[in-house]
Amino acid sequence: MKEMARIAMVLRIMPADQDVDLNNLIQRIKEHLPSGFELKDVKIKPFVFGMSVIEAMFTLPEEEKASARLEEYLKGFKDIQEINVLMSTRL
Q1: The pTM is what?
Q2: pLDDT tens column, 7-23
Q3: 52-61 and 80-90: which strand pairing?
Q4: Residue 32 belongs to domain with CATH number
Q5: Is residue 1 in a domain?
């Protein structure tokens, strides 16, 4: 049986405010990712007005609405204000 192709997505995850513990948020995101989704790489980067953002690379199955499922999952965290897709490519 042929293995399904995978997609890599790099997302910029902006916290709700500068007091959000980004390392704790990253850990919580990892713990409950939907089946078939993986967090492969994470960087915390300075952004604007003293805030930092998370740049995270996820891999996910190449299937209909997989990227929407990932974004909906992330929007479920009250500590996340906004999500921007920086890059998406087929692996």
Answers
A1: 0.90
A2: 999 999 999 999 999 99
A3: unpaired
A4: 3.30.70.60
A5: no
